[in-house]
């Protein structure tokens, strides 16, 4: 009898076979509607797919295993959050000014996680192959989890510090947040395959390590264990997304030789779009972390030049793919990007949902050592001038409205790649109008699809058109949802005063606007 029972016992299937049952074997051919009506978005971009079963998910994660794995990570994260809150962790940060980087994170990055959740859910419905649909479903859930854990983690600081209260409103309105928002809106209004190249490959594969590895290490080094925990919790998902992004591009390239030039143009475009968004990350890493871990330049060289240009693209040469079109410009800017991006934020922080400050003497020494070829010659003199003005009780803001790039939407304050003393400005004509871009990369993107980018929602243009609460600065700031102390100079701000009081330090003199 025992022998018969063992023979009839259900055999546990190998993971590969279980994954196949959960994906390909749940697919069917429609009988009551034409296939083109069921999947209307997979042909108009020109991409040819001959065998949807050619998609291989290297992880073969089942729904059951996925939720158990994520639940374990959430348990560990929420244990850290509870311990941090009970231990008055908000007092053990390196300095309250660190939280300005976290404000940009929740205003600019967390909404992108939610947008990614929405669009991967769209792909889970509309991609034709069952395996890529399942992979998109898992990534959609990942992105929603990231959004939720980021909100829960950062909400602890909202009890003690200003500036965290209205980010859901500000993400759609405030000028610098149109940079990440327009990037993602651009991707979501493209076709499904271009979205995969834009987000899964160009953003998640090429550049995500620049955000989730050095910045999260910086969070830990500045005493922010909750942010470090959610960052590294998300990074394990991001590593899976990176692998899926690589699988996606190889799948598309292997399906048809005619796909290669289309994908190459998408890589050229979306590398530069994602790189321009990363300018905000560069400023955060170099100027907004009181205790530095690594510079933007070091991280760019390690995670992009060494790992991507030196490791990935030689492999893609087999398919006929070359490095992105304007990658040389990005490399030439690594000595300057963070300095110029933070100067923009510093100049216009009177209209931002965070505060800025002139680098301290100690910070300038670190910047000088991290950027020996540029900082002392081009950027230190400006910051020392700011320091002298502030020593006399002043503070400099640029209270005019900046001209924005028509593509990346960053104020036009970047310089020429071969001359850091000359502003970079490009002009393009379309339908009798002149449009301005900040670089060769953005100009190329504009002239490739001018009909799309002339519709850009540019914050400065919207203010001039009267769509932002009114013509005066106070009216616009009220429309942004800013409260007193959210913006402007850090020294003398409510956060700085509270920090000094909690730590028994002498209060810093209130800075004056000049």
TrEMBL record:
It comes from Tomitella fengzijianii. Residues 415-457 form the YHS domain. This is propane 2-monooxygenase. It comes from the Bacteria. Keywords: Monooxygenase, Oxidoreductase. Gene3D superfamilies: Ribonucleotide Reductase, subunit A. One of its GO terms (molecular function) is monooxygenase activity. The keyword Glycoprotein does not apply. It catalyses: propane + NADH + O2 + H(+) = propan-2-ol + NAD(+) + H2O. Its EC number is 1.14.13.227. Pfam families: Phenol_Hydrox, YHS. InterPro entries: Ferritin-like_SF, Phenol_Hydrox, RNR-like, YHS_dom. It is an enzyme of class 1 (oxidoreductase).
């Amino acid at each position: 009898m025992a022998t018969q029972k063992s023979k009839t016992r259900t055999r546990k299937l190998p993971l590969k076979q279980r994954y196949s049952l959960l994906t390909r074997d749940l697919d069917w051919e429609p009988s009551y509607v034409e296939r083109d009506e069921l999947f209307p978005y997979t042909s108009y971009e020109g991409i040819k797919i001959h065998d949807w079963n050619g998609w291989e998910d290297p992880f073969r994660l089942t729904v059951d295993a996925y939720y158990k794995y994520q639940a374990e990570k959430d348990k560990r994260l929420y244990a850290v959050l509870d311990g941090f809150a009970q231990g008055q962790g908000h007092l053990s940060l390196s300095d309250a000014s660190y939280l300005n980087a976290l404000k940009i994170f929740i205003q600019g990055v967390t909404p992108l996680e939610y947008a990614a959740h929405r669009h991967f859910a769209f792909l889970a419905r509309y991609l034709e192959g069952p395996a890529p649909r399942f992979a998109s479903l898992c990534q959609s859930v990942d992105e929603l989890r990231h959004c939720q854990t980021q909100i829960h983690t950062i909400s602890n600081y909202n009890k003690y510090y200003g500036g965290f209260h209205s980010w859901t409103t500000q993400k759609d309105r405030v000028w610098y947040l149109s940079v990440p928002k327009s990037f993602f809106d651009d991707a979501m209004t493209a076709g499904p395959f271009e979205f995969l190249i834009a987000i899964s490959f160009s953003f998640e594969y090429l550049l995500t390590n620049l955000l989730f590895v050095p910045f999260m290490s910086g969070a830990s080094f500045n005493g922010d264990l909750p942010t470090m925990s959610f960052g590294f919790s998300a990074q394990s998902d991001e590593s899976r997304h990176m692998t899926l992004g690589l699988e996606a591009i190889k799948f598309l390239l292997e399906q048809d030789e005619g796909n290669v030039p289309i994908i190459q143009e998408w890589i050229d475009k979306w590398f530069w779009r994602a790189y321009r968004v990363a300018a905000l990350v560069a400023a955060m890493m170099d100027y907004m972390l009181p205790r530095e871990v690594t510079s933007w330049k070091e991280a760019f060289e390690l995670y992009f030049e060494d790992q991507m240009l030196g490791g990935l693209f030689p492999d893609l040469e087999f398919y006929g793919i070359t490095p992105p079109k304007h990658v040389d410009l990005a490399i030439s800017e690594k000595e300057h990007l963070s300095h110029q991006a933070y100067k923009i934020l510093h100049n216009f922080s009177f209209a931002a949902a965070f505060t800025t400050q002139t680098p301290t003497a100690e910070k300038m020494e670190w910047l000088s050592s991290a950027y020996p070829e540029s900082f002392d010659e081009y950027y230190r003199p400006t910051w020392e001038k700011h320091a002298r003005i502030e020593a006399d009780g002043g503070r400099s803001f640029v209270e005019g409205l900046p001209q924005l790039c028509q593509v990346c939407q960053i104020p036009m304050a970047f310089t020429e790649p071969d001359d850091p003393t000359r502003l970079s400005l490009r002009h393009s004509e379309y339908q009798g109008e002149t449009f301005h871009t900040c670089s060769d990369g953005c100009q190329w993107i504009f002239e490739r699809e001018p009909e799309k980018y002339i519709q850009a929602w540019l914050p400065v243009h919207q203010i001039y058109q009267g769509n932002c609460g009114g013509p005066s600065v106070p009216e616009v700031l009220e429309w942004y949802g800013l409260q007193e102390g959210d913006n402007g100079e850090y020294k003398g701000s409510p956060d700085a005063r509270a920090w000094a009081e909690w730590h028994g330090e002498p209060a810093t003199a209130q800075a004056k606007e000049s």
